[in-house]
Design a protein that fits this description.
38 helices, AMP-bd_C_sf, globular, fatty acid metabolism, GMP Synthetase, Chain A, domain 3, 41 strands, F-box domain-containing protein, Rossmann fold, nine-stranded mixed β-sheet
Length: about 1250
């Protein structure tokens, strides 16, 4: 070895020998668990507000972080003491749920939280599959455990009463368990959180089992680990902007905590020491209250929830921005715009239970600011990129063998399946290795959702694989089509499914709901879609169904499996119904002879055996070895009040809440414990409880406690029919005997039929009324009939009804519609006693009760927060004072009729405009003290106003309309009645038509100063105009009327009475209207037989020659003869009314024999010239005139035009307008001969 090599070798040896041995350690690592966030928050900021909650007994509960941590710690020690390792949770969003999430994990146990909207059998399966050894349940849902308890009687149940426990003694078993745990800790050296598992030994151990469920397979338990929840929560902190350094985060729990571990937000909000605003159920007024008063900063919701929230009457722009995490289907551009205008800033995320909730986010880029709104919102609706704690999301090809993973081209066109890899993918399915293998086939987590991958790396979902519609070889994304259809200005929600097609294989069909205050015909949607630039021809649905409500999952996504069922069952959604107890045989002795239709006599329902009566008992705890059950307070609620039938259907099932939980503000008919079954893909759904609780329940939910049959008893198929099918069938029965026989079949059938009978009991005669009153007052009745009555109408008995008559009905506190029209003997006492304590009243009609005073309306204001309709026509003693109270307390009013209430002034009208933004109709006929400023305020404030009737409000002038803001368009206004508002002139009419372009019915009768200029302005309404009344507008000429007819060819009703300047030219043009049904030409003395012959033989292109006329008013048209009337009668087969009063050629005795009788108030002189044929009189006149004349050729068989097409949905309203505006001839009877 050379010297150089020797020296280098020596140096290397020296260095090697001097290197110390390696030091291995794990000091730079700790196990991850989000449970540690709670004790950390309590240590940093113990007095910070952690929880805000309105309890079940309507008290506001606030808890600090130290209180939150102590209660979770107490529960943890309780679980450790008893050795519970798997704890089930069956609760809404309550503090107990939140405390249980942390307490269970701190005890080293696993929580198994369940959707309380599932069927009992699914709940039993999940708890059994999850191996729970203890269950925490909210008192409202305790009955849902009956099926599980029958199989596992020794599993302890801890009930949370969700009452205010901050004052006095602790109020429920859950609180007792917490207290027991705290005492246990104190007795064992008070080690606090140090002796709990806020950091588990194995971060890959499960912290929760989150169950998905479907209609075709058993629910699967997704294993959520401590590590996964920690990293998902950290991602939500970052991507949801939960920044505590800019003010405390205030998170509103609209999302259910049971869903995918609440997307890990229980831990994320706690980590930043934010405030949890717990919400038992979706309540839009309450959400807006919290947004406005508590300044909520964050919440999460599906587009459906946000749509209804934005369209809520309480909606208004917030002063501070609110961060909204939007999930499920992509929000539409219109929804983005609505939310942004309200200062709700949406961020679209996407995920599933298998990814701990959200795993991607549509990140907003600054360069989008300059894009057109439509393009910007389209980019915002994409699902975007993966969360920061996960690897990038990918889209892979689907036309490859299983396990093969090949990315699609990032061109925004090629469709593939979304897959995930990384930290926030769940561990797998509990006790289901085969499903786990399929979930992770090829080393990626498969979502089952189809999407495209854009060049910038963002993904965009097109649909679930099973929801893609393949029509004639074209792939149609139902999600994309839904988003496009949702841009229609009148559509609120859309669901699209495929229907079979013999030519194309399948094609799309759309189910839509309509925005409040809007109208929409199915064909209008199809026509609009055909003209939409973004909807390809092959995507246009051939069928559209307009429905009241779309079926949704517990978390707000549209249930397309139910839509598909509707295709095979019926076109409309199933009616609402109530859950019922299990079937129990009813003997023929149970019900005797029904007293009358609509009744079940109280004498027929006393029975033992099948219907054991419940007796009040005190609350007690049944504690035996291995069993701990806390029984509910029977005197607060019946057990069956909370029962959900094992075969409950996926429809909405309204029922009364337990009495202890009834809100003092506006009790809901819909308990949050009832909801549809979940769909097969519900693991990607997001939360929305049913919002509309105004529907009347017709099933019975107040049975006495019943004996539960063994689950092993065989039930035939007919016994398993869901309640909505039974109700639909029973509702078709017309015979009381048939209904009685159905009630005798079994308890299930009885429960679903008695509600139909009692929903609106028949009180059309005294015998029925007495029977109803006796049954309602029976204390031992099986059914609480008073609670079943939703509509009470005594108007058929009118003057015979007195205060004593209605006394038995004062105990009916669930009446929704109360009609007392013309019951003139009723006084304030009778009406106010009926209203007192009834917080469910939605419509009250006391028209023509002239003795009523302000007292009654004060009672209404105090007791009826849900009032939507009020009719006090001719209640002349009512003043502004009580109406102000009604306006301020009944803010849900939609229909208000104050006709003839002469004391009404601008003060009360403006109060209604300011306080009741949901008003759709207001009728101020003959309210002479109402002036122009009120009209201006009504129009500018009530943006959903559909009908405004101002007949005979003589103080109204042009300023009412000329002062309207120039930019405002009243798109909802359909009916405007200005009868006898003589100070309204041409300038006002021009402004009205410009501001309300969709007016359908316009009444300007006796507006004597309007001219052709007004008529020319009305022409702008085009096809929207159906009804126009220009009676006594004597300045109108032929040229204007002819232009009107050419421009508005859908007119069906037109009145031109006393327009003396009109000639045959106008009427001949009127005859060309294809849909004309009723025409008023009273005192148009210049018209001749030529006009009538034109009406009899309408010269219409592409239309039949048979006229559609139903009512023709020709009184005082003195030039008419039999030569024109005979053809008119013979060529108008639908004619039911013909008036010829004052026409000399028809006052002969042989013709007047077929007339109807003159009104009794007419003088003899008026009777002498009266000549009106109606109904059968028209038929008899036709037969008489044709008796000696050869019958005219029958042409009805050749009719191509069906008058039922495009029927006016406001038909009843039009009829009302006719009566209100003197279209009938009685309004034109002269004492002497007609004047020129």
């Amino acid at each position: 070895m050379s010297g150089v090599q020797s020296r280098l070798s020596s140096l290397v040896g020296h260095l090697t020998g001097s290197t110390p041995p390696s030091f291995e350690h794990r000091f730079n690592n700790h196990t991850l668990s989000p449970t540690s966030f709670l004790p950390r928050a309590a240590a940093i900021e113990p007095d910070a507000e952690a929880i805000y909650h309105v309890t079940a007994n309507n008290k506001i509960l606030r808890r600090s972080y130290i209180e939150f941590a102590d209660r979770a710690r107490g529960l943890a020690y309780y679980l450790k003491k008893h050795g519970f390792r798997r704890v089930g949770i069956l609760c809404p969003n309550t503090p107990a749920f939140l405390e249980s999430i942390f307490g269970i994990a701190a005890a080293g146990a696993v929580n198994v939280a369940i959707n309380y909207r599932l069927k009992k059998e699914d709940i039993a399966y999940i708890f059994d599959h999850g191996d729970v050894d203890m269950i925490i349940v909210d008192q409202e849902f305790e009955s849902l455990l009956e099926a599980y308890q029958s199989q596992h009687p020794n599993v302890p149940i801890i009930v949370d009463t969700d009452t205010d426990a901050s004052e006095g003694e602790l109020t429920g078993p859950f609180d007792h368990a917490v207290l027991e745990g705290l005492k246990y800790d104190l007795e064992n050296s008070a080690q606090g959180w140090e002796n709990l598992e806020s950091q588990p030994a194995d971060e890959e151990s499960p912290i929760a089992l989150a169950y998905t469920s479907g209609t075709t397979a058993r629910p699967k338990g997704v294993v959520h680990t401590h590590r996964g929840c920690y990293l998902a929560a950290m991602a939500n902190i970052i991507d949801a902007g939960l920044n505590y350094h800019r003010g405390r985060a205030k998170y509103l729990w609209t999302l259910p905590m049971f869903h995918a571990s609440g997307w890990t937000f229980p831990w994320a909000v706690t980590a930043v020491r934010g405030t949890h605003y717990c919400l038992r159920k979706i309540d839009y007024p309450e959400i807006w209250r919290l947004l406005k008063e508590e300044h909520v900063t964050h919440f999460s919701a599906a587009p459906t929830v946000n749509t209804l929230l934005c369209n809520s009457k309480e909606a208004e722009r917030l002063p501070n921005p609110v961060h909204v995490t939007v999930a499920a289907s992509p929000p539409t551009p219109h929804l983005f715009e609505q939310m942004t205008n309200l200062n709700l800033h949406p961020v679209h995320v996407y995920g599933m239970t298998e990814t701990y909730g959200p795993i991607t986010k549509g990140y907003y880029l600054p360069q989008w600011d300059d894009l057109p709104l439509a393009e910007k919102y389209q980019k915002m609706a994409r699902q975007g990129h993966g969360f920061i704690t996960s690897l990038p999301v990918r889209v892979i090809k689907t036309e490859v063998p299983e396990g093969t993973v090949i990315d699609v081209t990032r061109d925004g066109k090629e469709i593939g399946e979304i897959v995930f890899v990384g930290n926030i993918c769940a561990q797998g399915y509990y006790k289901d290795p085969e499903a786990t293998r399929k979930l992770f086939a090829g080393g990626v987590l498969h979502s089952g959702d189809l999407a495209v991958w854009h060049p910038d790396g963002a993904i965009q979902i097109l649909d679930r694989a099973k929801d893609i519609i393949i029509s004639g070889g074209e792939n149609i994304s139902s999600v994309a089509l839904e988003s496009l259809l949702a841009t229609h200005p009148d559509i609120l929600e859309v669901g699209v499914v495929s229907v079979p097609d013999s030519h194309w294989g399948e094609r799309p069909k759309a189910f839509v709901t309509v925005k409040e205050g809007r109208e929409l015909a199915e064909q209008d949607v199809i026509d609009w879609a055909r003209n939409h630039s973004g909807i390809s021809k092959f995507m246009v649905p051939r069928e559209v169904a307009v429905v009241k409500e779309l079926p949704k999952t517990s978390t707000g996504k549209i249930r397309k499996n139910v839509l598909r069922e509707w295709l095979t069952l019926r076109p409309r959604p199933p009616p609402a119904h109530s859950p019922i107890p299990p079937e129990t045989t009813i003997t023929s002795q149970t019900f005797g002879n029904l007293p009358s239709k609509g009744l079940v006599s109280h004498q027929l329902i006393r029975s033992s055996g099948p219907f054991p009566l419940a007796h009040p008992s005190t609350a007690h705890a049944d504690i035996t070895p291995g069993v701990m059950r806390f029984q509910p307070y029977d005197h607060l609620r019946r057990k069956s009040d909370r029962t959900v039938d094992l075969d409950s259907s996926p429809a909405k099932m309204p029922r009364p809440l337990p009495r202890a939980r009834v809100s003092s503000e506006a009790p809901s008919e819909t308990s949050s414990s009832t909801s549809p079954e979940r769909a097969a893909d519900d693991d990607t759904d997001f939360f929305m409880a049913q919002a509309n609780d105004s529907q009347s329940s017709i099933g019975v939910a107040n049975f006495r406690d019943s004996q539960v049959q063994s689950s092993s008893v065989f039930v035939p198929p007919i016994g398993r029919l869901p309640p909505e099918i039974l109700i639909a069938i029973f509702s078709k029965l017309v015979s009381p005997l048939d209904m009685r026989n159905c009630m005798l079949v079994c308890r299930n059938w009885a429960s679903n039929s008695v509600g139909i009978l009692w929903h609106r009991p028949s009180c059309n005669n005294w015998d029925n009324l007495k029977s109803v009153a006796a049954s309602v007052g029976e204390p031992e009745a099986l059914f609480t009939y008073g609670d079943l009555i939703k509509r009470l109408n005594l108007s058929a008995l009118t003057e015979d009804v007195s205060d004593g008559t209605v006394l038995p009905f004062t105990q009916c506190k669930r009446i929704e519609r109360l009609t007392l029209t013309n019951c003139s003997k009723l006084t304030d006492k009778g009406v106010s006693d009926l209203v007192e304590g009834n917080r469910h009243l939605q419509a009250l009609d006391v028209s023509d009760l002239r003795s009523l005073t302000d007292h009654t309306l004060y009672v209404v204001a105090q007791n009826c927060p849900r009032l939507q309709g009020l009719n006090i026509t001719n209640c002349i003693k009512v003043t502004d004072d009580s109406l102000l109270a009604v306006a301020q307390n009944c803010r849900q009013i939609k229909r208000l009729k104050l006709n003839g209430v002469s004391n009404v002034t601008d003060r009360s009208i403006m109060s209604f405009a300011d306080s009741c933004p949901a008003i759709l109709e207001i009728d101020l006929h003959d309210c002479k003290l109402v002036t122009s400023p009120s009209v201006t305020t009504l129009l500018t404030t009530l943006r959903h106003l559909r009908e405004l009737r101002l007949a005979h409000c003589s103080e109204i002038n042009d300023s009412a309309f000329l002062t309207l803001p120039e930019h405002m368009i009243f798109d909802s206004l359909r009916i405007l009645d200005l009868t006898a508002c003589e100070n309204v002139k041409d300038d006002a009419v021009v402004r009205i038509v410009h501001a309300a372009p969709r007016l359908r019915n316009l009444v300007l009768a006796k507006c004597r100063f309007i001219t052709d200029r007004s008529v020319q302005a009305i022409c702008r309404l085009g096809k929207n105009l159906h009804y126009v009344h220009l009676g006594h507008c004597s300045n109108i000429t032929d040229s204007a009327v002819i232009q009107l007819i050419k421009s508005c060819n859908r007119i069906r009703y037109i009145d031109l009475a006393c327009c003396n300047r009109l000639t045959d030219a106008s009427v001949q043009q009127l005859a060309t209207l294809p849909k004309l049904r009723r025409i008023g030409l009273v005192k148009c003395q210049a018209i001749s037989n030529r006009s009538i012959l034109a009406l009899a033989h309408p010269p219409r292109a592409n239309h039949p020659t048979v006229s559609n006329l139903e009512r023709v008013h020709l009184s005082y048209c003195i030039g008419l003869t039999m030569d024109s009337i005979r053809p008119l009668i013979n060529n108008c087969p639908r004619l039911t009314h013909l008036s010829l009063t004052g026409v000399p050629n028809f006052l002969e005795d042989n013709l007047t024999a077929f007339c109807r009788e003159a009104p009794p108030e007419f003088t003899q002189q008026q009777r002498d010239v009266f000549c009106v044929f109606s109904g059968e009189g028209v038929t008899r006149l036709r037969e008489y005139l044709n008796r000696d004349v050869r019958p005219m050729r029958e042409e009805t068989e050749a009719t191509m035009y069906d008058d039922d097409e495009e029927l006016d949905e406001d038909e009843g309203q039009v009829t009302g307008l006719m009566h209100a505006t003197d279209l009938n001839d009685e309004g034109y009877i002269d004492v002497g001969p007609p004047s020129e």
